[in-house]
Write a structure and sequence with these properties.
Structural class: mainly alpha
Distance between the termini: 95 Å
Shape: elongated
Radius of gyration: 31 Å
Number of helices: 27
Order of helices and strands: HHHHHHHHHHHHHHHHHHHHHHHHHHH
Number of domains: 2
Largest sheet: none
Number of strands: 0
C-alpha cells in the first residue's frame, strides 16, 4: 500500500509539475511574443549570436525540445538556413538548464532568514495570490500573462514538493538502496535518463524528478552524471518526431540536435569516468542535491558547446550527408510544400510568425503568377503556361493548409496582436488563391487570342496596355502592402481599384462603339469581355487584401463600412484617385 501511495504521489507531482511548466511557459511566451519574432528575424550565421539567441528563446519557453520544433518549422518555411540553427541549438541546450536552477532553490538548507525567503515554497504562495488576481481581474494582456507566469511557477513548485514528499521515505527502504546500486553502471544510467526524458518529452521535467529523488540523500554523483547525460540525449526525441514528414533541411535540424548531445556524451562521459577512476574524488559515496544537479546539468551543456563550437561546419556537413536532398520534381515539390507542425501551436507567436511567412510567400507567388499571365497577352509561350498552372496549384495547396492550420490556431489563447495577425491572414489567403485563378483565366484568354490569331484594333491594343499597366501596379503594390504590413501604402490600393473599374467600363463602352461601326467582331467581344472581367476581379481581390490590412489595424473587418467611408467626402482618397486617374487616362 505504501508503494502504491508513493507511485500515485510521484505521478500526481509530475502532472502538477508539467502543467505548471506548460502554464508558465505559455505566459512567458505570450509576454515575449513579438520580441521572440524580432529575435528570430535577427538571426545571423554568426555562431556566438546564434548561441545567445538560442539561450534566450529556450529560457523563455523553458524547453529545448520546443526550440528544436520551432527551428524545424522555421527551416521548412525558409525563414532560417539549416547551418544557422546549429548554433541556436547549442544555446538551447544551455537555456534549458534554467529550470533546474529554479528548482534547485527548493534544496537550499539554512536557518538564515535571507536564505529561507528565497526558497520557492515560501514565496510561491504569494505569487499564486498575485497571479490569480491578475488573471481574473486584470484587463491588459500584459498583466494576465504575468499572472499566468506566477500561477504556473507556483503549480510547478507545488508539483516538485509533491514528488519530493512522495519519495522522501525511500532512503530508508533496503530495496531502494539495492536498486540504486545498479545505477552505478554508467551505461544503464544513460539509458534510464534517455528513456525517461523521451517518454515525458521534457528534459526539465526529468531533471526535476532527479532533483526530487536527490532530496532523499541516496543519489551519488556517479549515479547522477550518466542519468543527466542520458536526459540530454532523450530530449532530442521530440525534435525527431516533429521532423517526420518534413523536408530534408528540417530533418537535419532534428538530427543535428541528436548529434550534438551524442558527441557531448561520447566525449565528456568517458573523461569523467577516467578522471574519477584515476583520482579518488569520492564520487561513489558523495551525495548530490538539487543545486549540484543544476551545476552538473549546466556544466555538461556549456562544456559541450565550447568543445563543439569550432566544428559547426563539420556537423552541418555530416547531417547533409546523412540526410540528402531529393532530386528532380520531388525536390521542387518539397520546396513548395507547406509544413506547419501542430506542436508549434504550443508557442502561438512563433506559429503565427511562420504562417505569416507562408502567407507572404503566397502573396509573392500570386503576384508572379499574375504578372506572368499579363506577359502572355503579348508574348504567348507554353513554358509560361506551365508555370502559371503549376503556381495556381501551389496557391490552392497554400490556402488549404494555411486555412486549416489558422482555424486551429484561432482556438488557441492568443495575444491581441497575434489574434489580429491571424484574422488578417484568414481574410487574405482566399484572395491570394483567387488571384491565381484569375491569372489562369488571363492565360486562357491569351491562349484563345494566340490560337485564333485574333488581332485587336490599334486603339483597343493601346487601351489594353493602359489596363495591364494599372493591373501590374496594383498587384505589385498589394504584395508590398502585405509583406511590409504597410498601412499607409494600403490606403493607395482602393483608389487605384476604382480607376481600374473606370478603365474597364470605358474599354467596354469603346468596344461597343467599334462593334456598331463594324470595326470589331462579336468573337473579339467575348475574348475582350473575359480579359476585362479577369482584370477587374484581380483588382477587386487586391482591394480586399489592402482593406484587410487596414481593418486589422483597427480591429474591425467591416469592409463595406470602410469603403463607404473613404469613397465619399475623403480628401486623401480623392487626391490619390485623381493621381491614378491622370496616370491611367485612356485618352492621354
Amino acid at each position: 500500500m505504501e508503494m502504491f501511495k508513493m507511485v500515485i504521489g510521484l505521478c500526481a507531482g509530475l502532472v502538477f509539475f508539467l502543467f505548471g511548466m506548460s502554464t508558465m511557459s505559455a505566459g512567458l511566451e505570450k509576454a515575449a511574443g513579438s520580441k521572440l519574432e524580432v529575435i528570430l528575424k535577427k538571426m545571423t550565421d554568426k555562431p556566438v549570436i546564434g548561441v545567445f539567441m538560442g539561450l534566450i528563446i529556450t529560457a523563455v519557453i523553458q524547453s529545448s525540445s520546443a526550440t528544436t520544433v520551432i527551428l524545424v518549422g522555421l527551416v521548412n518555411s525558409g525563414l532560417m538556413s539549416f547551418r544557422s540553427t546549429i548554433a541556436v541549438l547549442f544555446g538551447a541546450n544551455i537555456g534549458t538548464t534554467v529550470t533546474s536552477w529554479l528548482l534547485s532553490l527548493a534544496g537550499l538548507e539554512s536557518s538564515s532568514f535571507i536564505v529561507q525567503i528565497f526558497k520557492p515554497q515560501i514565496f510561491s504562495p504569494l505569487f499564486a495570490v498575485v497571479g490569480t488576481a491578475f488573471m481574473m481581474m486584470a484587463k491588459s494582456d500584459k498583466k494576465k500573462n504575468l499572472g499566468a507566469i506566477f500561477v504556473g511557477f507556483t503549480v510547478l513548485i507545488y508539483g516538485m514538493d509533491i514528488m519530493s514528499g512522495a519519495v522522501e521515505s525511500l532512503a530508508d527502504k533496503p530495496w531502494f538502496g539495492d536498486l540504486l546500486l545498479k545505477f552505478n553502471n554508467p551505461v544503464l544510467g544513460v539509458i534510464i535518463g534517455a528513456v525517461l526524458t523521451a517518454i515525458i518529452q521534457s528534459s526539465s521535467a526529468s531533471v526535476g524528478i532527479l532533483q526530487a529523488l536527490s532530496l532523499t540523500g541516496a543519489i551519488t554523483y556517479n549515479m547522477a552524471v550518466p542519468i543527466i547525460v542520458g536526459q540530454n540525449i532523450g530530449t532530442c526525441v521530440t525534435g525527431l518526431i516533429s521532423s517526420i514528414g518534413a523536408g530534408a533541411k528540417a530533418k537535419r535540424v532534428a538530427l543535428s540536435q541528436l548529434l550534438i548531445n551524442l558527441f557531448g556524451a561520447i566525449i565528456l562521459l568517458p573523461i569523467y569516468l577516467v578522471v574519477t577512476g584515476l583520482v579518488d574524488l569520492g564520487t561513489e559515496i558523495l551525495k548530490v542535491n538539487p543545486v549540484s544537479i543544476a551545476i552538473i546539468h549546466s556544466v555538461f551543456n556549456i562544456v559541450t558547446v565550447i568543445i563543439l563550437m569550432p566544428f559547426i561546419k563539420l556537423i552541418a556537413k555530416l547531417c547533409e550527408k546523412l540526410v540528402r536532398e531529393k532530386k528532380g520534381k520531388k525536390e521542387k515539390d518539397e520546396k513548395r510544400a507547406v509544413y506547419l507542425d501542430e506542436r508549434l501551436l504550443n508557442t502561438p507567436s512563433i506559429a503565427v510568425m511562420e504562417c505569416d511567412n507562408y502567407t507572404v510567400k503566397m502573396s509573392i507567388l500570386a503576384k508572379e503568377t499574375v504578372l506572368e499571365s499579363l506577359k502572355l497577352l503579348k508574348d504567348y509561350n507554353k513554358d509560361s503556361v506551365a508555370v502559371i498552372h503549376d503556381n495556381e496549384k501551389v496557391l490552392d495547396l497554400y490556402e488549404d493548409n494555411l486555412g486549416t492550420y489558422l482555424v486551429k490556431m484561432s482556438e488557441q489563447s492568443l495575444s491581441n496582436n497575434d489574434a489580429r495577425t491571424v484574422a488578417r491572414m484568414l481574410h487574405t489567403i482566399g484572395d491570394f488563391e483567387r488571384l491565381g485563378d484569375h491569372a489562369k483565366g488571363l492565360q486562357k484568354v491569351a491562349e484563345e487570342i494566340h490560337d485564333k490569331q485574333i488581332k485587336f484594333s490599334d486603339s483597343a491594343v493601346k487601351e489594353i496596355d493602359v489596363l495591364t499597366d494599372a493591373i501590374t501596379e496594383i498587384i505589385i503594390t498589394t504584395t508590398l502592402v502585405y509583406e511590409k504590413n504597410d498601412y499607409e501604402l494600403a490606403t493607395r490600393v482602393e483608389p487605384l481599384e476604382q480607376v481600374i473599374d473606370r478603365i474597364t467600363a470605358e474599354i467596354k463602352a469603346h468596344h461597343i462603339k467599334r462593334l456598331q461601326k463594324g470595326d470589331c467582331t462579336i468573337e473579339m467581344g467575348f475574348v475582350l469581355s473575359d480579359l476585362l472581367t479577369n482584370c477587374k476581379r484581380i483588382s477587386d481581390h487586391c482591394s480586399n487584401i489592402a482593406v484587410a490590412i487596414i481593418e486589422a489595424r483597427n480591429d474591425s473587418f467591416d469592409t463595406h463600412h470602410y469603403l463607404n467611408s473613404v469613397k465619399y467626402g475623403n480628401d486623401s482618397f480623392t487626391e490619390v484617385f485623381e493621381e491614378y486617374n491622370k496616370k491611367y487616362d485612356l485618352h492621354a
